[in-house]
Design goal:
Layout (H helix, E strand, L loop, with lengths): L4 E6 L2 H17 L4 E5 L2 H6 L2 E4 L16 H17 L4 E5 L2 H13 L5 E3 L11 H6 L4 E4 L5 H6 L4 E3 L19 E5 L4 H21 L4 E7 L8 H4 L5 E6 L2 H4 L4 E5 L2 H9 L3 E5 L3 H10 L7 H6 L6 E3 L5 H12 L2 H13 L9 H13 L2
Parallel strand pairs: 1-2, 1-4, 2-3, 5-6, 6-7, 8-9, 8-11, 9-10, 11-12, 12-13
């Protein structure tokens, strides 16, 4: 019997993390399956064949990815080579639409099934992308319940498998009485670099009001500690730790975070938060035209209301961020209410076992 072969393609840190968990779940179902991947640190460890370090080559927005085109071209050549010389039974793209739609189209031309795990955020902008995906997908496995109808309407076989963070983020703990503020500037260096000086100055402002507060800056594993050190030379009171460190993060009194996965993790941990984001001027001008949701923070989207403050673009400045933080910290009841409402959102995300359910959905494609 020919060896079963799967190709997994992830281009961002969260996709790399969840892709590795999915790879392990596929191996648990069938230890003989061979896994070829493009991804990052986590997928490299889970793979039989690591084809290219794709994580970190993209960027948020419309201009940033252009700067990485030579590397993206090398990743594309790796995909073409494996589809031609050792075609997999199934291709599994994870999020990362700009690259993965081309992977899916090429797989379709090779008559290889495509099962997408973790939908691109088509619900936030350019919902017409569901039509492009409908032409090439065998199945879509989504992690938010509100995504199901979008794909059904486009004629895509779809299954809600729950959110994989439910199996990674520990149960929340009660506040320990220590005032602790966390700074989460992003998961890619281009994003971190834009937000880090803003957050450090915000922390300086907050220290004037809360001199006994503990401040922690969370660093993704994929970004070297040395890149942060020039920023930290004059702020010895700001502790740097790698992320995700949920046991440390769940002790926070408040998080000031960029939108994205970190905001959802904070939601599951019940951490009161302020969400911020600053884009390049060109990216922001385009984003205003295409974004079709009233909120950018996942907890607000799930709640259907502005549960957590969002300070974006011109509002993402230290003075306004510090003022929003003071408002929460000086009114403990507001923080308690936010915590309770954040924790109530957990039930919308499924019952756990996302990657195991996804692996079971993929398994029939390995039998063909």
């Amino acid at each position: 019997m020919p060896k079963k072969h799967v190709l997994i393609v992830a281009g961002d840190p969260s996709g790399d993390l969840h892709g590795a968990a999915l790879a392990q779940a596929l191996k648990a179902l069938d230890p003989d399956v061979a896994l070829s991947v493009l991804g990052g640190t986590h997928l490299r460890q889970a793979a039989d064949h690591f084809l290219y370090p794709l994580v970190g080559l993209g960027g948020f927005g419309f201009w940033e990815p252009v700067l990485k085109l030579p590397h993206l071209w090398r990743a594309w050549r790796a995909v073409r080579a494996v589809l031609r010389t050792d075609p997999p039974n199934v291709v599994i793209p994870i999020d990362y639409y700009g690259f993965n739609i081309h992977v899916a189209r090429l797989a379709k031309r090779h008559c290889i099934p495509v099962v997408y795990y973790i939908s691109p955020q088509v619900w936030a902008s350019r919902p017409q992308r569901t039509r492009a995906l409908a032409k090439v997908l065998s199945k879509m496995l989504v992690i938010f319940p509100f995504e199901v109808d979008l794909y059904r309407q486009a004629g895509v076989p779809v299954r809600f498998v729950g959110h994989p963070l439910l199996d990674l983020v520990p149960a929340p703990s009660q506040p320990n009485g220590i005032l602790s503020i966390g700074l989460l500037p992003g998961s890619r260096w281009s994003i971190v670099e834009r937000h880090l000086p803003i957050l450090i100055q915000t922390a300086r402002e907050l220290r004037k009001s809360f001199p006994d507060a503990q401040f922690t800056l969370f660093r993704p594993l994929d970004i070297a500690e040395s890149r942060y050190l020039p920023w930290l030379e004059k702020v010895s009171w700001l502790r740097l730790t790698h992320d995700p460190v949920y046991e440390q993060r769940k002790k926070l009194s408040l998080a000031i975070t960029v939108s994205g996965t970190a905001a959802l993790e904070n939601t599951l941990l019940g951490i009161p938060m302020i969400v911020m984001y600053k884009l390049s001027a060109l990216t922001y001008a385009i984003a205003k035209r295409v974004i079709q949701v009233p909120y950018v923070a996942i907890p607000n989207i799930l709640a259907g209301k502005p549960l957590v403050p969002e300070l974006l673009q011109a509002d993402a400045v230290p003075e306004k961020l510090a003022a929003a933080a003071r408002s929460l910290l000086e009114n403990p009841e507001s923080g308690r209410r936010m915590r309770q409402e954040l924790l109530s959102l957990r039930s919308q995300l499924g019952e756990g076992g996302s990657v195991q359910t996804a692996a079971q959905e993929i398994a029939p494609f390995l039998a063909t």
